[in-house]
Each structure stands twice: as C-alpha cells, then as structure tokens.
Amino acid sequence: WETGGRTLVGASPEVHVRMSGGTVVMNPISGTYRYPAEGPTPEHLLDFLADGKEIEELSMVVDEELKMMCTVGDMGGVVVGPRLKEMTHLAHTEYELRGRSSLDVRDVLRETMFAATVTGSPVQNACRVIERHEVGGRGYYAGALALIGRDAGGTQTLDSPILIRTADIDAEGHLKVPVGATLVRGSDPVSEVAETHAKAAGVLAALGVRPGRPREERVRPRLSDDPRVRAALDGRRASLAPFWLRMQERSDVLEGHALVVDGEDTFTAMLGHVLRSSGLEVTVRRYDEPGLREVVLAHEGPVVLGPGPGDPSDMGDPKMRFLRGLAADVLRGHRHGVLGVCLGHELIAAELGLEMVRKHVPYQGAQTEIDLFGRAETVGFYNSFVAYCDDETAEELKAHAVEVSRAANGEVHALRGPGFAGVQFHPESVLTLNGAVVVRELIEGLRG
C-alpha cells in the first residue's frame, strides 16, 4: 500500500474484520510458538498448547472480539476453532468468529476498532494504559486497512487486515518494522522480547535485511496434522461455553425488559445477547449518559449493573461515586430486582458492608471451578478487586436472608438476597461453561 509519502509492505496473518453477504468474520490470534533453532516438533508444540498463560491469552482476546461481534451482529456470534496458523518462523493459535449483521460495512468497521490483540482489554481502558506508557505514536502499526466494495449482486463487502508484520518505508527509503507482544499476568519479559524478534524475522528476511531460515530439503509435515496436536486443540474447545459454539436462537423462557448499565466494558454487549437469547428485551446504557439515574429508577424490569474497570472503593473517582450511589438506590427500592456482574457485583458487595481488596495478582481470563450456591460451576474471572467475607459476617448476612458463595480464603464469588444478586465472574464469557443458564436462573431469582 502506497500513501504518497510512505509505503507499507507486509503479509498480515490476522484479519481485522471481513463482511460478505451479510456475514461478518473476525479472526482473533494470540499465543505464539517460536520455532527453536533446530526446527519445530510436535512435542515442543504440545508443551506450548498446554501452557496456561498461552491459553488465557487467547481466551481473553476471543472474549474481547466477541464483545465486538455482539455489537455488530444481529444474533451475536459463533466461535470456530481453535486452529493453528503455521508460518516460517513461528505458529499462532487462533479462532474465527462468525455472525450475521444488517449494519452498513462502515459501521461494522467503526464498531470493531481496534482489535484487543494489539491493544489489550477492555479496549477503552487499555488505550488509556497505552497512552500512559508508550512514549510515541504507533503510526500505522496495529491499525487496519479496509477494502470496501460490492459483490456481483450489489451487496456491500468489506475486507480489513490488521497492520502487523508490515514494513513501513518512508520516502527516503528508511525501513521500520514495528512489532509487539501481548502481556498477561503470566508473561515472562525475556520470552516476550524474544517473541517480538521472531515476529520481525519473517518480514526482515523477506526483504533481504536478515538471513532467512535455511530451505528444508524435504517438505516438513504440517504440525496440525499430528493427531496429538489435533486432540490438544479439540481439548481447548471443550473448555469453552457451548452457548458460543453454535448460532443461538431466541427462546421465550423469560419475559420483560432488562436495562444493562455499562461501566466502560463492552462485555455488556455479550451480556445483552445472553439476556436476549432467554427472551428478554434489552437496553444497554453507559453509566455517563445524562439522566441515567432517573431512567434506571423508573425502569419497569430488572436492572443489570455491568462490568467495568476501576476500584469500587475509590470515592475520588466520579464514575465510582456515581455507580456506588446508583447501586445504593436500586438496592433500597427497585421493585424489579438488580443483578450485578463483576464491577456491578463489587458495588453491591460494598453496599452490604463487605471489605473490598485489590488482588495481589489480578485475574485476566482465569477459568476456575467454584462452588456456586452448592453447585459446581466452571467460570471465567476478569477482576483486580474482590470482596472478602469471613464466617461471622456470612452468618450476619444469612440472618438478613443474604446468601454468600465464597472460596475457602473468604473471596466472594457470588451473593444473593431479596431482590438482588451479584457474581464476581463473567457469566457471559466463553470461559463460563454454563453461563447462559446461570444468568437465566439469577434473573428468575430476582422475581422471587
């Protein structure tokens, strides 16, 4: 691609978004297996596929891009994969997300800016972190190109790659190949730096700037053809919520209209889709919309206090000050009930007087089995703060008809009482295996 002053040359492995015939496709890629000097082997790859850090890294971006798919898709999206994308110097794990949309392709492109694989999540907050820590602009790196047109039948089409593995050449012939790596709680700095070198190697070798890999005398079998590798990839799929592995149809289990308050995390788009699939009408409103408090208190239906970044105890933060007040208001008198998810749950817990603590190591796409009110559930956590409840406090709450689900160390997983419930985990996440059922049961519980 030539701009008049710059030339971009590359072969991006990652689709930002495609749309054709009303079908939207996204392609989250994360998790990098760097080929050792002696070449890749199925045994080394199997170790990589079993690495919890790599699994969490990919799960996080699948959730993040599902948020976007649920924003642009009329009926959410379906997860295909995982698959292995094999390249010259490395291999990636990837998924494909598919959904149907009636939006204009320009709206699809706008709503999917920018991929979590190159920003982090939640995207809005991640961009603030990037602004704080990156000393200069990224230029074209991690952005997107878009080819917009129409097919033979006149239907709009869109093909947009993410600008990674791309050389940026200026008018004087100076060459720059920006690269990056995804940082999660289990990241090793040395390994992440080595990953960036491997990512740049393919582009630099193609341009003749550095030596390429020696040509192999015989064709190497595809790593993904090994039955053990296929089994490992299939095993990852088994740890995803079945709800997101098929196209969903709307049921009529629940009736009414749910109002979801977005605390700056578009997990609310996925949450809205899960609620709609149960039969509810759903409206999602950002916390900072003018007049939101009055709208919430007048709403004729369940209110969902959704997730978002930040410390629920920080009353110096205008967002938290507003949301804490809103949580107090709906707990006092909203006759249709309130459900809190992640931050929303923390707000409810704080209003009940529970201690809020910053986790020593935050959860980023951590899948864990918990005891949820006497039933084992595999759920996905994304949280930096948590409520604590000891035995004495649990008994006091029980006397007021409040039930607490907690870990052995006192961390609160969930709570419920007359007209309210809260869950620290994300029932809408691909990591929560039974999430749609959990949401439905919690909403039913609000209605007594």
From TrEMBL:
Nucleus among keywords: no
Entry keywords, A to Z: Glutamine amidotransferase, Lyase
Boundaries of every Glutamine amidotransferase domain copy: 259-440
GO biological-process terms attached to the record: L-tryptophan biosynthetic process
Domain Chorismate-utilising enzyme C-terminal: 3-199
SUPFAM superfamilies, alphabetized: ADC synthase (SSF56322), Class I glutamine amidotransferase-like (SSF52317)
Keyword Lyase annotated: yes
GO molecular function annotations of the record: anthranilate synthase activity
Catalytic activity as recorded in UniProt: chorismate + L-glutamine = anthranilate + pyruvate + L-glutamate + H(+)
Name of the molecule in the record: anthranilate synthase
